[in-house]
Every structure is written in C-alpha cells, then in structure tokens.
Amino acid sequence: MMMNTRGSARSAFALVAGCLAVALLCAQARADLPTTGQWILDKQAGGAALELTLRSSGSQGSHTWDFEERRSIDRASLRGLSDAQLSSGGTHGSFRIVRDAGWFDCDGWIANGGGAGSYSFTPDLAFAQGLAARGIGSPTPSQSLRYAVAGIDLAYIDKLRSLGVSPLTPDDLVRMADHGVDAPFVSAMGADGFRFHAPDDLIRLRDHGVDRDYVASMRSAGYANLTADDLVRLRDHGVDPEFVASMAAVGYTNLSADDLVRLRDHGVDADFVKRMTTHGYSKLSVDDLIRLRDHGF
C-alpha cells in the first residue's frame, strides 16, 4: 500500500508473510489509517500466481493520504474463495486474509481469475493482549492494521527482545516494519554475534544496505566490534572486505574504520601504495598517503 502525506518524508515497508507485501509512504506526524478500503485481484502475466492490490484513502487534520500496493499472494491465503468462483465468468465472492495482528474480510465480484471489491480489517484481540503482556502496550486499530500488512507477529517481537532490541514501542514496530526490518533481517544481523539494541540502529542498517553478508565479511576481515554507525559509514563510502584485504596485503592492517573511510574517499588503494613503494616511499602513515594522493602523486 502506498501512503502519501503532505509535507512528509518517505519511508516504505513490505508485507512478506503469506506473499502479501504492502509499502507505505508515511508522514512524520502519522494519521490513523482507515480500516476499510478496496481490493483488486488479478492474474499475474505468464503464470498461475495471483496479484492482490489493496487501496484506501483518508484524512486527519491537515494530513491526507492515499495508499496502494500490489504484490503476489499465495492462493491458499484467500480463505473461503473456491477455485470454481475464481474461474467463473462472474459471481459474487468473499474471502478472508488472516494475519497474526488481524484479518481482512474481502467481499466483491469474482470473474475469470480475478475480481474487485471492498475490504474491512478487524484487529485480533489475542495479538493485542500478547503485545500488552510483553510490555509494549495495546495497539490502536490503525497500528494493528500496520502490523498486519507488515507481517508482524509475536514470534518476531520475541526475536527482537531475545536479541536485546529495546525499548520497543508500538510506533517503533511500525517504523521498523516501514523500513523492512523484518524477522529474517533481525535474525541475520544477530547470527554472527553482532548486537544492535536500538530500533533506530536496525532501521539505519537496513536503509543503507548493510546486510548479513556484509557484516559477516567485515567480521572475517578482522572487524568484529563495529558499531551500527561504523557499518553504515563503511558501507556508504564503499569500504568492502576486498578493499580491507588489499590494504592488509601491502602492510596496512588493523586500520580503524575512520582510516578506512578516509583512504577510500581520497582514492588511496593498494596499487597506489605499491607505486609509492617503487619510488622509495615505504611504510608511510595514513595521513602521508592521503597527502601524497591529494597532491597528484
């Protein structure tokens, strides 16, 4: 689902549970999402998969929005919709899409493998009680809808807590979902011993493309105690394990994250170090290498 609000910065999140994904563009001051809207079901080109679109719009105060997203959905997720209805030439149909945080009741017209109609969302009381029992607080209907479209369940929250991600508020969960900080990402980031306790750290890592492979490779290169800030800076400046290894091969080991970034930014690489060595400049400091490079050597 795409949500546009005036005067807002954009963020996006995907619903991966059950193959339904929803992206939202959210206002800094969030307005409540409506719990009703429209659905459209289409065949995907060249295959048997289905594509579900959910749409809605609303306003609160000075904020207005429209959201929309279309993603593949597993046929089995459309509870109550028969194959006969789906393949008919035209008939009334209804189905339910169930998530831990609640369910979408969809009603409308089904024909030739697709259809369209309206939906209403109902929060799941047991899920709300589960959040309250974990000290997060009971969600509003709007928050429950956000959790449902993001695929947030209690197992995901328990995983966050087991990794020491705290404190967690209802809005933290929404923001993490908005930015694609899902259970697989959280598990992957903790798999190699790194611990990122602040929700904002996980969001920044996700936004900057820091994934498990990058974290694990930097750990293998000898950087096991990097902070989230370090990882984001290194990733943003193009410092990868290959660069670290090449600098180590020419004698520059145990460099700080700051030195790695500075060398990369100034174009100092292993080839430059080798060239300086052939001209009699060996065992130069990081600062010396940068000065020489900046002066056109």
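(the above was protein one; protein two follows)
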Amino acid sequence: MAKDPGPGPARRASDRGRYGRLNRERVLGAALRLVDREGLSALSMRRLGAELGVEAMALYRYAASKDALLDGLVEALHAELEDRLTAGEAADAWRAELRRVALATYEVCLDHPQVVPLLSTRMLAVPLARRPRATLRHHERVLALFEAAGFGADGSARLFRAFTGWVLGYVSVELQAMVDNPQEAESGFRLGLHHMDPQELPRLRATAPALADRAGPRDLTDGLDALVDGFTRAE
C-alpha cells in the first residue's frame, strides 16, 4: 500500500490574472485605477485581487501589507509625474523648469485626486530613505534645480521645504470638498451656505462661492514665483 504523501507544501497562489502575469507595475496600476474610481476606502488586498482576477494572497509578493500598497500608490503617482516630465521638453532656466515641475505635479494630482492625501500622510509615516524610488527621484530632481541656481545645502533645504509645502498645499486647497448638495441649482444652497451663521461667519459666507471655483495653474505659478523671489532676495 502506497504511503500517504500528506498535504505537501502550501499551494502557491497564482499570479496570472485576467490581464496576464502580474508584476509590480501592473498591480500598482490596477490599485491606482481602483482608487481613482472608488476612493481609498475601497482599496484592500481582496478587492484589488478581484480587480486583477487573482487571489489576494498573490498580491503579497508585490506589496507586503496594506501600508506597502498605499506607499505603492504614492510611487505610482510619482512615476507618472516622472514620465510626464521626461516626455516634455525641459526648460533652459532653472526657475522655468521649477514652474514646469510644479505644473506637472498639479496636473497629475488633479488626475488622481483620491491619492493626493497620501502625499502628505505617507510622508508623515515613512522615513526619507524608505520612500519609493520614484518619490526620491522627484526630490532629487527638485534639489538639482536649486543646486544649479547656486543654492548651497542649507538654502536648497529651505527652498525645497517651501516649494513642497506650497505645491501640495495649493493642490489640497484646489481639491477640498465644497459642494454640500450637488442637486441644488442655486449656488448658495449647493454650497450649503444656509448652514453657516451669517453673524459669526460673514466673510466665509461671502468668499465661499469664489473658493468653490478652482483657481487653476496661473495662481500656482504666480505664488511659486513670489516664494522663490523671497528666497533669492534672502540669499
């Protein structure tokens, strides 16, 4: 009588799904599309596996945890930004190139608004050296511009902080939720201004309709120019 071989090694989850064999780029691309469509709350290993047509366990070879998957979304966004900048024509002057970087960042963020919060929250959780390579390459690109402009290490660090804070802050304000009831035709009711006390919040009520409209890229670059002017005068 043949001896029972026992259960044997655990079955390896297949990484061949409906889009072919998985790789990191394909997994992160699917995660990005899922979040674009349904928001960050929809993202899970099980949901992403269903999206790709594989078992959730197959994904752990490409992202070891939910946090790693979130970091992967930051990586995917910066990789798209890098592709966009590489495909375009670099400017000759460093300030013009800095504006190009800011505008490309703005465009990519508006294409993927659901991922934008991760650009801040994951940077609060992930040490610099452990950030995705695409993110680090983006940091390097910006710092290289400051070096080309003649800023030393300290000046580059100050301007890097200011540039990053301005661009991410601007994008966050552009994307902030404003509409209270999208079914309302009248702007005041659509924004829910009737919920605001006119005695306590008169300026906010008056300004809210203007805040609800996106300022666009012009204000982004105007503010960036003013910021850079201040730093160059200080050097």
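Reviewer note on protein two: Residues 1-12 have pLDDT under 50 and may be disordered.
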